TrEMBL record:
PANTHER family: DEAZAFLAVIN-DEPENDENT NITROREDUCTASE (PTHR39428:SF3), F420H(2)-DEPENDENT QUINONE REDUCTASE RV1261C (PTHR39428). InterPro entries: F420H2_quin_Rdtase, Split_barrel_FMN-bd. Belongs to the F420H(2)-dependent quinone reductase family. It comes from Streptomyces subrutilus. One of its GO terms (molecular function) is coenzyme F420 binding. GO terms for cellular component: plasma membrane. This is Nitroreductase. The lineage of its organism: Bacteria, Bacillati, Actinomycetota, Actinomycetes, Kitasatosporales. It catalyses: oxidized coenzyme F420-(gamma-L-Glu)(n) + a quinol + H(+) = reduced coenzyme F420-(gamma-L-Glu)(n) + a quinone.
């Protein structure tokens, strides 16, 4: 699929529940309601679904280092990587909304050295990531978004 074929403006949102409520409030308020969630900053990541080619939007906690945005593909410690992560490994071009600003980015899995450096930063923001890692056999990927 070529980037021109992607409908970035009409992504699918999570199913009914708190995540959908979060996304709707975030979008309706241009990030004013939802950017901060439980004391941490969140963004809305839009990926291209690797099976359907449709865009999908996911709310995620994020960290920053210079011009890099950092995400953790914890999936609450599930045995498999979350869908959004599997999507970006196939289609690394993503969009994200952080507050009111929408950005284009290239997504990639952090190198082992980057993961070692950034994991403490991300667990300082959201300590349950350490519990998620302890509860699964897979290494939880850390994702780097670059402009």
């Amino acid at each position: 699929m070529h980037a021109l074929d992607v409908d970035w403006d009409h992504p699918a949102d999570p199913g009914p529940g708190p995540r959908l409520d979060h996304v709707r409030a975030y979008v309706a308020s241009a990030g004013v309601d939802g950017h901060l969630w439980h004391g941490v900053r969140t963004l809305l990541l839009t990926t291209v679904d690797r099976a359907t080619g449709r865009t999908v939007r996911t709310p995620l906690i994020y960290g920053e280092d210079a011009d890099r945005v950092l995400l953790v593909a914890s999936g609450h410690g599930a045995p498999e990587h979350p869908r959004w992560y599997r999507n970006l490994t196939t289609h690394p071009e993503v969009r994200f909304q952080a507050g009111a600003a929408v950005h284009k980015a290239a997504a990639r899995t952090a190198t082992p050295q980057e993961r070692d450096a950034y994991w403490p930063l991300m667990t300082a923001l959201w300590p349950p990531y350490d519990d998620d890692q302890a509860g699964t056999d897979r290494e939880i990927p850390l994702v780097v978004l670059e402009p």
